[in-house]
Design a protein that fits this description.
- By secondary structure, this protein is α+β, with helices and mostly antiparallel strands.
- Helices cover about 55% and strands about 20% of the residues.
- The protein has 13 helices and eleven strands.
- A six-stranded mixed β-barrel has the order 2-3-9-6-8-7.
- It is elongated and about 105 Å long.
- The C terminus is likely disordered.
Length: about 400
């Protein structure tokens, strides 16, 4: 094992009889280097975008959401929910009542998603950065207010200031009497003033956030709720999720953020791996330069192989010399490329010299270096390089042997 590696190192770093072979070997190494660096940079940039997108989504979504396994509403008048609210690991607990409502203002209409929450919970989980404009309050003293999503406000064109900015919320009364002659009696209507506008976030732009007491009165649903939203001390803790699920039983579903919006998470992550696959294919093409490098080296060292054969070296040993040279080319290129890619990402994270256009959500492209990605990249590059080196060394030695046999005949 040591002898083939010794010859491989000598052949790699020694001067060849034909200068073009040195150039081809350098090109092979640079191809592996650039491919590895590109994979590190692309994955780190996509990791940064993934982290940014999911962090924006996390601002508007609860860490855990409890929903009934069947039906739309459920009651919390049981000992299990009292124990749940008292769990020390939970920092915020809010009962939620949701439904579709027709919002009206100044002859403008929009079907939005009403979300009634416990007013105190808003201050435990939210901050002013969530708002585009206004105050982060849904109840002051005994006055109810609404926080509108961007699409709701854009369609209704309702101002936050003034005495004539009340919006009408309408919904069919689920408990209306079937004997009502007048259809308008089947519609429940309540009036509320907007107090703020949420910052834009896909999936939350149609929200109308109100106090839960107001929502219960509008929806005529005084006993049931739609969900419970929770925040814990450890973000998205699996153990806490399992503990809550065990406490409530199979009649309820305890969903973490990924389970609440699986499409978003799958889309963000699949895009990353699609790009990884594309860049890997490009890298494989560059790695195939090793075949040319080993082919030229085998031709250049043909006389050395004759000498080694006469000294008793087997074809397998000679093949391993060029096989290990291909591995060395890939190893040096991949390690150097990973280092350069890592340095570039660290500089981008610190200085942010790769910027975005004006009006973007961030000034510089975010970067998130994940060391498991570096391990995956290294394994991928080395696996492809090992296969290419084995094929190149085997085919070249076999070709040289065939030509030698023909010449001897």
């Amino acid at each position: 094992m040591k002898l083939p590696i010794f010859f491989a190192k000598r052949y790699l770093f020694s001067k060849k009889s034909v200068n073009a072979i040195n150039i081809i070997s350098s090109i092979s190494m640079i191809g592996v280097l650039v491919s590895t660096a590109a994979l590190v940079i692309v994955l780190s940039f996509y990791n940064g975008l993934e982290r940014f997108i999911l962090s924006q989504y996390s601002t508007f979504s609860p860490e855990y959401r409890i929903e009934p396994s069947s039906g739309k509403v459920f009651s919390t008048n049981s000992e299990a929910f009292k124990k749940l609210r008292a769990l020390p690991e939970i920092t915020s607990y809010s009962e939620v009542l949701e439904d579709k409502v027709l919002a009206e203002f100044n002859q403008q209409q929009f079907i939005g998603r009403l979300k009634g929450i416990e007013p105190n919970s808003l201050h435990q989980i939210a901050n002013e950065d969530m708002l585009l404009e206004g105050k982060l309050e849904v109840k002051e003293d005994s006055t109810n207010y609404a926080i509108l999503g961007t699409t709701v406000q854009a369609n209704l064109q309702v101002p936050l200031q003034g005495d004539e900015n009340q919006i009408f919320l309408n919904i069919p009364d689920k408990k209306a009497s079937p004997n009502n002659i007048n259809p308008l009696e089947d519609i429940r209507t309540r009036v509320i003033k907007p107090n703020a506008i949420l910052g834009y976030q896909p999936g939350f732009e149609d929200l109308i956030i109100v106090p839960i007491d107001f929502a219960k009165d509008l929806l005529n649903e005084h006993e049931g709720i739609s969900a419970i939203e929770l925040y814990g001390k450890n973000d998205n803790s699996t153990s806490l999720q399992k503990e809550i699920q065990a406490l409530l039983g199979k009649d309820f579903q305890v969903k973490n953020r990924e389970q609440q919006n699986p499409t978003l998470y799958k889309t963000v992550r699949s895009e990353k791996w699609i790009v990884f696959f594309i860049v890997t294919i490009i890298g494989i093409i560059a790695i195939f330069n090793i075949i040319g490098s080993l082919t030229m080296l085998v031709i250049d060292k043909k006389q050395d192989m004759v000498v080694l054969n006469s000294l008793g070296a087997s074809n397998n040993l000679i093949q391993n010399i060029f096989y290990y040279q291909g591995i060395l080319i890939a190893l040096i290129g991949s390690v150097t490329g990973a280092f350069l890619g890592l340095v570039f990402c660290l500089l981008q994270d610190h200085f942010g010299f790769v910027t975005t256009s004006e009006g973007s959500l961030f000034d510089a492209y975010p970067v998130d270096i994940r060391y498991m990605d570096l391990v995956l990249i290294f394994i991928t590059v080395m696996a492809v390089s090992t296969l290419v080196s084995y094929m190149a060394s085997r085919l070249n030695i076999r070709g040289i042997n065939k030509r030698g046999a023909l010449e001897s005949n």
